[in-house]
Amino acid sequence: MKRLFSLLALPLLAIGLSSCSSQVKAKRPVSYQFKNGQTAKLVNGVAYAPKRAPLAVKRAIAAGNRLQHKPYKWGGGHARHNDSGYDCSGTVSYVLREAGLMKGSMPSNGFYSYGKKGDGDWITVYVRSGHVFMTIAGLRLDTGWGADRSGPRWHTRTRPGKGHVMRHPSGL
């Protein structure tokens, strides 16, 4: 019986591996470098969109600003759109919904199939098994990594990107 299960699982494993290998993976750390007119500016924890940014990007940044100082809450942002705290996928789902770029919410692994493959011009979603974060106009919105699980925050410090698959909303 165990051998039969192993034989049946092989094709499923192969399908999963092939779909993941066709993704565009980040090879470099996720770094913030301010470029006037091209990247968001962070002042006292509040992000400001570049003037020429598309409306959806401005809405995404405004949504990210509303989440600042919310605590990390496992499952937060899924059952309730406006929640008392947010986890990583609840944060990304909230921002993309508020920007008009998705409906509903999804767990982190659901973002493997979100939007288009690769790095976006304005918004990039970084996903790996069990975690998702995003950059909007070059500024990272993340619930933290390692011991830092403070909740949704804007970050300018570099974060490892290796192992994350990059996705972006169509046209952005």
TrEMBL record:
It comes from the Bacteria. Residues 151-172 are annotated as: Disordered. Residues 152-172 have a biased composition (Basic residues). The keyword Signal applies. PROSITE patterns: PROKAR_LIPOPROTEIN. Residues 1-26 form the signal peptide. InterPro entries: Papain-like_cys_pep_sf. Gene3D superfamilies: endopeptidase domain like (from Nostoc punctiforme) (3.90.1720.10). The keyword Signal applies. Keywords: Signal. This is C40 family peptidase. It comes from Luteolibacter arcticus.
